[in-house]
Amino acid sequence: MKIFKHAVLNLVRKPTKAIMILVIMILVFSLVFTGIIIQNSISSSRVFIRTHLGAVVQYEQDWEKAMQDQIGEDEYAKMQISRETAIDIGKDARVRNTYLIENSYAMAQGLKSASQQGGIIVYETDISGEKIRSDENEVVYLNLSGSENLIPIEFEIGKLTLSSGRYFSQEELENGDRVVIISEEFAAINSLNLGDSISLETYNMAKMDCTIVGIYSGAAQFTEDNFFTTSAMIREINSFEPYPMEGYSAVYFMLNDPLDVDSFIADSTEKLPSKYTKLAANNNEYKNLTKPLDLMELITNILIWVIFAAGAMIIIAVVTIFIRDRKFEIGLLLSTGQNKLKIAGQFIFEIALITIIAFVLSAGVSQLTSGYVGSWIAENQLTEEKTNPDSSQDIPYYYDYGRMTPELDIESVADEFDVSIDTGTLLNLFLISMGIMVIAAGAPLFIILRYKPREALQD
Amino acid sequence: MNEYILEMDKVSFGYRDGGKKRMILKELSYGFEKGRFYTILGPSGSGKTTLLSMISALDVPESGSIRYQDKDLSKIGYGKYRRNHMAIIFQKYNLIDYLTGLENVEANMEIAKNKFNGNKKEIAYKILNTMGIVKTKADRRVTKLSGGEQQRIAIARALAKDVDLILGDEPTGALDTATSNEVIDLFKYLASEYGKTIILVTHSDEVAAKSDISLRLDDGQLRQIKEKK
Ligand SMILES: Nc1ncnc2c1ncn2[C@@H]1O[C@H](COP(=O)(O)OP(=O)(O)OP(=O)(O)O)[C@@H](O)[C@H]1O
Ligand SMILES: [Mg+2]
Known about the structure:
The complex is a heterodimer of chains A (459) and B (229). Chain A has helices at 3-13, 15-53, 63-68, 73-78, 83-90, 153-156, 170-175, 184-189, 231-238, 261-268, 283-324, 327-335, 340-384, 397-402, 410-416, 423-449, 453-457, and strands at 56-61, 95-109, 139-147, 161-165, 179-183, 197-201, 207-217, 226-230, 250-255, 277-280. Chain A has 459 residues and is α+β, with helices and mostly antiparallel strands. In chain B, the strands form two sheets. Chain B has a six-stranded mixed beta sheet with strand order 6-7-8-3-9-10, sandwiched between helices. A four-stranded antiparallel beta sheet of chain B has the order 2-1-4-5. The radius of gyration of chain B is 17 Å and the shape is globular. Chains A and B meet through helix 1, helix 12 and helix 17 of A and helix 3 and helix 4 of B.
């Protein structure tokens, strides 16, 4: 018996029931596929958000909570992460670079502030209220950020760019050479060039002459007076302070892969010195951005399973009827001594053909529908959030100062919300469909083929 | 070794009917000889079709045994026996409805171990032609043929299998007298010239008159009522 020929002949010459099965399969498959495609898009949106929020994990201290709990001196002291602990955490294979940042400030005489709030003429007075500076010169306060790394983190992540000059050398870092990288704005307002020297004054008015080795661009408003220098120089300046700042002003861990952020935080938290400290990676922002995705994912998940379960049952029922209807034909074939496997083969091949056609059409249909659904989600669900008061919108600038991640809003997520399906998923779906088909066709065939031919013929 | 090609030994079979069992074949014993043309008569409902389904292994006796060439059917294997040793024409011409007459005949030709030599399609057309089915009708879907034509295709389908045992359940019931006579003559010829054993169930005394041996099924037993020498 030519099972393939007979299968095709049956489908072509008696197409009504086959078309019925085809339509039902297309409906069910398309719905399930659309759901899965949307789910895929949701998870790739998550990856997009995580990747965009960057791979920087920040060490944070919760001073507010510590104060509320009225913790003791010892606990406060513990909140400062030690060099050893930070380096230990940074040994994790997921970490590319550890940044231990020390800050200080210094004054410069005769220079103008480039920041808006700067430019104030600061008069130093002694205890009696008398001015101790007779020249009434402008004095600018400079924020100094010390780096132990060849490239400070702000430049590494692209928040700032070096527009001319160079970064520090390994030698300068080790020796604490007096080198600085200044902002374009500061250079412009004070007509400074690479190689020029600036005289900084420390707390005790010791003078430190520094060479400008680099000029950067991209300074945020009010941060134009920030200088970058070596950590060693910061420590030297701080040594003059009567009450030097303790610990690091900031500690960052830059990971190789942004997607490792959550697992890295989970694994490293136990190494932290105090329960009032934590590792954070813009989790609030991540949560805010992914919140609309969570709900959508839940809904599609439920829909997929409901449709899948109901659809599988309907398909199994219809296919059972399709095969049961041909009990007589099976009896006839059995009466001629036809091999049972061949009989089953023909029927399964028929259903398989229908399934394959339904699959191909559904893949096309769901590509279209998920496109519409996808853009609807992007336009209505994702952008809707921005009309709500968004926490990221009123972040004050000083908070932003320590942020080592680029800005990301829900609109960029919506722009990136891309519905498509990869071949791996497609293959899985195909195997599942074929599986359902084999169960649907196999069960009634198994039962009918066990009948005696007379019983099947007397149907 | 005995002379029977097919031998039934105390075969019993019944149907369960509304909870109680009704025996149709009651310890029926009979031997069919090779190369002879048998007819089986009997009132409607006496169990002729049931008897044929035992002989053709479409069902299995509840007790007793059936042997083909001295070998128990269960030993040969029911599927294998149906495939290689017998062909059956049903009371209702059972054809596969989505195939043409030709395709129905061809499908049956491919199954048995022994196959006719030569081009399958040509042989199929030839057998159909012998049955009075011309090519244009042979190429038509069987649902678009008359009852008599479908019956003739069912006969052709059985003849397309090169087997020793041909069973028919009123194969000429739907045919006119002239055609019926031709078909019966063909069966006679197959028995006498090719040594095939033919067993036909019939209601017609004329058909019975043409056979070598006439049997009557009555009260679950088979009795010989006539034998031509
Ligand atoms: N599957 C079945 N279940 C119960 N009873 C059945 C079944 N098949 C047949 N019978 C009964 O068994 C008896 C014998 O049936 P069978 O078809 O063998 O008769 P028959 O001699 O071929 O009759 P006819 O000449 O009308 O074709 C009948 O009374 C019939 O009603
Ligand atoms: Mg009958």
